[in-house]
User: Fold this.
Amino acid sequence: MKLDKLVGDRFKEKPADCVIDSHALMLRGGYMKSVANGIYSSYLPLRRITHKIEEIIREEMDAIDGQEVQFPVVMPASLWQESGRYESVGSELLRFTDRNGGAYVLGMTHEEAAVHLVREYGQTYQKYPFMIYQIQTKFRDEGRPRAGLIRVREFTMKDAYSFHTSQADLEQYYDRCHKAYERIFARAGIPEVISVASDSGMMGGSISHEFMLLTPVGEDSIVICNECDYRANMEAAECIVHNDRDEVSEELGLVHTPDIHTIEDVCNFLHSPKEKSCKAVVYQKKADDSFVVLFIRGDLDVNETKLTNYLGAEVYPAVITEECGLHAGYTGPVNLKVNAPYVVLYDRSLQGANNLSCGGNQEEYHYVGLDMTRDLPNAEYHDFAKVVEGGVCPHCGKHSVTISRGIEVGNIFQLGTKYTKAMNMTYLDSEGKTQNPIMGCYGIGVGRLAASVCEAHHDAYGPIWPMSIAPWQVHICAMRADNAEVRAFADSLYDTLQKAGVEVMYDDRSVSAGVMFSDADLLGVPVRVIASPRNLKDGCCEIVTRDKSISMKVPCEEAAEKVRELVAELLAKNNAD
Amino acid sequence: MKLDKLVGDRFKEKPADCVIDSHALMLRGGYMKSVANGIYSSYLPLRRITHKIEEIIREEMDAIDGQEVQFPVVMPASLWQESGRYESVGSELLRFTDRNGGAYVLGMTHEEAAVHLVREYGQTYQKYPFMIYQIQTKFRDEGRPRAGLIRVREFTMKDAYSFHTSQADLEQYYDRCHKAYERIFARAGIPEVISVASDSGMMGGSISHEFMLLTPVGEDSIVICNECDYRANMEAAECIVHNDRDEVSEELGLVHTPDIHTIEDVCNFLHSPKEKSCKAVVYQKKADDSFVVLFIRGDLDVNETKLTNYLGAEVYPAVITEECGLHAGYTGPVNLKVNAPYVVLYDRSLQGANNLSCGGNQEEYHYVGLDMTRDLPNAEYHDFAKVVEGGVCPHCGKHSVTISRGIEVGNIFQLGTKYTKAMNMTYLDSEGKTQNPIMGCYGIGVGRLAASVCEAHHDAYGPIWPMSIAPWQVHICAMRADNAEVRAFADSLYDTLQKAGVEVMYDDRSVSAGVMFSDADLLGVPVRVIASPRNLKDGCCEIVTRDKSISMKVPCEEAAEKVRELVAELLAKNNAD
Assistant:
């Protein structure tokens, strides 16, 4: 198509609210427009990109025996009540009533709908295994949408659900799907995506992986071992701590610590390192506001995902008032009193430690000389801590952990029987016994994947789209289209390439070279052909790639063939990656 | 793929709640499953059909210079407030609030979103005309979903929006789109679809057309002239009535009519035809409950769409209580009193009539001898009546009108500047003057189109899908797949056809011929190959088409080639129609 007909504006200025490059470039390049917080409309270039991504996903899902289906966006609450998630999921699940007062939700994931669709079908073991998937709009009422298409409220997602009669069969399929995901990301132009162990969160189930594009602007923290192949999301990464216990345990004693509230203050005041302090972090449960007092070594932070998983309940940072009996900044495990229901938890980082400081449970006093073993003999220890850079790898045991940032571009879960049990989906096994099928589920966000590719492949001037998902394959710049020779050559090339099935964007506007090239840069089409009066004098045109790796002068009569070769080559490269 | 792996059940029994065949067949054939009232999930066969329909639509929209975009399903109420439709549209617009209390709607149509997307882009006349479209999920909170995919609450729709600088340019594009629609329906296998003039309803604008598949089970009534090319939806069709005025007007007089309430009763009692009565139909406005008393000739019915359009307000059948002053069954235009705000309207069918009966505005009395001209000299007449079979064609004036039923499979509207004015979208014309662009909009429901094709093309055993949208192109039935020869031939044919890019469903189950054929009938694949021990003995297989028009024995070695030819032929036929 011709660029002067492309609906959407391109502009130079970086919009003020963009924190990552892909967001800014996709607004500046006329890819999308914000409609509401976390809700976008797409223009043609983005729709073409997402359409190609959808086709890649479809091919790879079909190749692992997936059957495409479609679930509704709007689902009756009753379906989510069957699984228990109507109550258990927070306000990110959008609930509403229809004209007759019926309760409904907007689909943010479709495990319930999947079980609903197949529970009559899958009544005998011979029907298994099978996998169904859809590519469909979802809505998740995010509290903090951000970063353009990376974290939105409305999005297009491929979600797949597999059903099995044994854990072994699920694991085998899970591996097949893992490989299909690697192919999808490679074909979409980001073979560098890695998979990491993850927390299953609200999905339930045990083993799960996230596919991560490592980038400093990612939202997730990824724990990576430099010595072995251990990789996990911070939320799921086990924290290993070795405590050096002092030979002599001091006596427990109170110290007057006026105006001292933070761990930093206490440790400075006492001239002891943070590793020698016992920090209190206080939460309340969302369900009943009861208190959760968690003690952890002073240099470490709480991983709230681990805490939530351990409790099986959502928490929020406690509101400490006079009535509750706690003293903010002075809470410790010895002589702790709370005037309300509460639980006390201990992180493993404290296990066996001695000569620690901790809150005195009264204003302006701290204890010193705390010996966990001696003073709190009944304490039980669990892993609640965030892994730190340079920490111990839970896999190989070396101090070899680094922490990177990543964007999650896909995830796969072994769900087990959580949904089939709750929703009473059963089959008769080969011995005539009633069983619940075992499920896996597999997601990829289409728009987020597009934005991630842009994040991974761009320069200051615009995206550098891989051939496989580029909105167009070739971009013809006719410099001075008022020149008859330029016009004739460019028109003919446009025509020839289109007839050959090449997707061509043709810029024949009367604009300056600067405007022409900056628009081409923003559209990020991989192959560019420049026809100018100067080159045509030599019977040549220029062919350059958006990533600058190729730049050549080609005789005009060879241009179409050369372009076709280049397109085919770059496409093959994406598919081979 | 192999039929024994296809997720979904096929069954014989017609589900109880199905009023039309396509609904029953699509449930019986494992095409879809109900999730809630008017909300369905689709299995693979239907998803493949809708995917093909979507691709046909996409090609035809691209061919008329459409640019595919995507609007959100969830839109902020503010966008609909800009156009005024947040208030004016009824409860079919689903309104809800998000987690922060923000007001949102579920998109049932996207004029507002379209204007929002392009109002910065379209600021100068050089950018025009342009058309954007999307294929996306919509939700319309129907009061009475029915007939399977014909009237649902959640559906996939192609909606397109064009923008112009003159009415002439809109009309030219409207015609192009009209032709594109004809191609779409022809390619989808229903070239018999006709276009009819329609009422623009809540969309606003003036000229509009609906594309109708004529079928006795259709929801819409279509007025068709047998003498000229006049075709209109009943809602929009003008009603022409010629009254024969009696030479002598009788005197107006009251008659005692005890226990007589209906027009039938009155006319029987007075021994006069219904054409000689003046019927009152009473409504109240939804907005303020004020009364609307409409008088119409006794043999005609009120077209409520015309009434609503005239009033510019929604109405409901009046609740007549003692307080309001009206007497149910005895309401007439002479000495009418209503103890509440009200308007009186007269249908054109009464204009000039005399010697009519009408209600006496008191219990148990009617007037006779009513002369509209003499007794109600100030009455204004408008067209509020429903066209009747055998009525007068408003185009050629002959008594040649027939009424058919139809399913609306698409619609196109000339919207004018309703949305661009309301939402303040402007451009500078060639003389530097500020103007509002003129819009058109164009819709096709994808699922409804699939169901309509099924409705038009099925038999008692299942759908007869056209090759262009069939879920698979070829269905191989291996009768007695345990027979080595059958297995070898069918496996090899399956393999050969798949490698040739033919879409094959392969049934190699050990089931009876009856089960095998009834399943094949329900899947409705256009070309069927039957391999049986008996035929193979003669070195042959059978090739039959689902519509029974072709049935032949073909030597095994020619089967693959013959099937490919047949597929290509049938595909070409759909594209040529």
